[in-house]
Amino acid sequence: MKLENVKKILHGCRVAKTALICILGVPMFFVFSEVPANFIGSFLHVDPTYTGGLVAEEIVDPIGNASEKGGLVCYTVHQPVTGARWQKSAEYWQVVFDYNGTPVQKSEVVYIAVDNMAESARSWNFALKIDGAQGQVYDNDGSYICAAEVYPLNGGEQVKARIPLQDKRLQPLLASKKTWHYFDFGGANLGLELTKDADTLPVEARMVAQKKDNGKDAEDEAFVERVKKMYEAAFNEPSASDSSDDSVDPMVAINAALEEYGKKIERNPNDYISLANYGSWLAKKGGESSALKAMKLVKEAYVYLDKAAALCDGKEGEIEVLMNRASVSASVPEMVFGKSEVGANDFMKVASLTDNKVLKAYCFVMASECYKKYGQKSNAFIALQEAKKALE
Hints:
Strands 1-2-3-8-7-6-5-4-9-10 form a 10-stranded antiparallel sheet. By secondary structure, the protein is of the alpha+beta class. The protein has helices at 6-10, 15-25, 27-41, 48-51, 172-175, 215-235, 250-267, 272-287, 291-311, 318-331, 334-337, 340-353, 357-373, 377-390, and strands at residues 55-60, 72-78, 92-99, 107-114, 126-131, 134-139, 144-153, 158-164, 178-185, 203-206. Helix content is 45%, strand content 18%. It is built from 14 helices and 10 strands. It starts with 5 loop residues before the first helix and ends with a helix. Helix 8 (272-287) runs antiparallel to helix 9 (291-311) and helix 10 runs antiparallel to helix 12.
């Protein structure tokens, strides 16, 4: 469905305005509700030895195929762990593969060069071979060293591999400050002759956790803010319920809107646009309520939002409905409601339905933020790249 006449389609219900209400209005409750979560979290520090060690290097799109289905989006190298409790190995080293969906190739070999080992005929010292949920480590003569712990997650979209470091041949990794990684996906043939002038280019990774470089993050954050401002400028139409008088109780406008859409729903229980708007205004009311009441109102809001989404599939007004639910989902705290995945899916669906560049970019940006909230790092990266492409 094209959005050449988006303002006509959305006139009356004003989906853009509703989305902004959800994002800018509801967070008063959300800020409040995050306080106990953050307070509790401050006491629930998880030792890095349980989670794989401190992150030393995150390499985005390491082999240039992140945009392909099954491509490697991010390769994370952790700092080696020592003295780990309740783990299979007290000393281990973890690397993590994040893919764009389930990888086409089920096996891979990563050849690893270590900075503090004597140079050999080949430019790598160890090979990590992964095949499904199985892993083995070899030296550069092809001799087996040990098994690696391999944990495929999210249907194989993420693979965590831990190399035990008890064997003396692997212990130089504990003192290493830098490593180089060569990827051989699908081939899985040990003994690949990698020399200093080989065509296969290595990826360089530090082995010691560094202070985070915020340069790239700041650049992305600036882009996200620019897209949000473009969206607000393009779609934020004033309405009669808006008031510049700060003394006016926001509940007056909220209750008026709920009454208006409630009457429409009484006349037609399957009026999905009214259902979606009613749900959004309920969430807005939650933002102006106490924490306990807010939780009840937001839960009730999703009864209307979910019904509207089920009814609108493939119909005119689908964009408006999905934007209502997506915007509420992006606003509510993930730890309380767990709706970030719903928001990401809705934003991505709207992005696929519209030809409007600003709306498309905004939806990709918001989807990226939702993905981050529930730990989908690969999808967050891909959605942000799509947002940038939409404005080219």
